[in-house]
Here is the input.
Amino acid sequence: MQRAVVLGGGVVGLSIAAGLQRVGVEVTVFDTAPAAGAASWGNAGHIAIEQVEPLASWPVLRSGPRRLFSRGGALGLPPSQIKRWLPFALRMASAAGRVDHGREALRSLLTNALPAWKSLTEQLGVPGLVRETGHFVVWETPVSAADGLAAWRSADIGNARFHECDADEMRLLAGLVKQAPAGAIRFENTGQIADLPKLADVLRGFITARGGRIVNAKARAVVHRDRSVSVTLDDGSSVESDFAVIAAGVRSRELIEPYCSPVPIIAERGYHLQMTEHGWPDLPPVVFEDRSMIVTRFESGLRAASFVEFSDIDAPPDERKWQRLRSHVAALGLPCNAPTRQWMGARPTLPDYLPAIGRLPHAPNILYGFGHQHLGLTLAAITGELIAQLATNSPTAVSLKPFDLQRFS
Here is the structure.
């Protein structure tokens, strides 16, 4: 039996570990606490199969100034972090010239994303964890409603579907907020994870029940050998295995760059507030697009999430982001009560907004799956399937060429 170490215990790393077990690989996962701080467990729970348009595009870049946090928007570019985000932004501008390539690459993954999640949760024994109930997008003014609807009608949304909300749906949405929306659409076949803490527990339980190990330790380095790898941990000990999969989010860079340089990944930080006490009905996620905020009801509480902040992963959080979220919740009149729990975490983002999935050509015992930006949850299950196919030298369900790290060489 082959042995693998998976470096990273977020939703991508755990999905990879489960995928490897299903093809007969013995797995050990190394992860550092607290797992709750990972972007995997702080997101909106939305399986966003409609997000085919890459964010590395000229329309997105041109909209940047009006979306700045200082102007009331969700984009954070801290001046103290300019040495990090300016080179990234320049690479993003270069990638915008290849937007058609990025669109086709994302489409190949997103087409398979929801079927992969359904397959994985069936194998986990909890098919109800994935809800294919769509989501709402709401606008607060007639102008933003007209512009937003036109933008979605012209966007490439893959195999997702939406319709303008009918009178009953508009009344339902109006009952959630102080002022009735000026317009709204409902996506019909996007998905949601019912509860992220439950997903984390079920994935970990599935892996350990099948003889896998999940170890609370940080990997410091990966040494490639002819027929194996050696992983050095923070305490100086080492673990031998047949191959390693690097899936450590933003921290994947330090592990893989000795073999593959450069890896221009950045910490794209998001914030949320979660409320245990609320009066929100059992609805799919609701995107308040004018505020760049998504509200999701989980089994464990109601979550309001927002912000794209390019920064160092270890920089302290910006308290103003949580204050802005509270002001949005109050302005909308959402049925929420104190107390709230604050969270901040970093999405691992590459400048072309495509993930890195593949095998190192000069170190073939090192595989990788990271850099999924806003689509980490969405693409976790299909990434687990692809890494399992790659590890067993099977044909992959989609071409991995667009996701090869050599594209940055």
About this structure: Residues 257 and 328 are 41 Å apart (CA to CA).
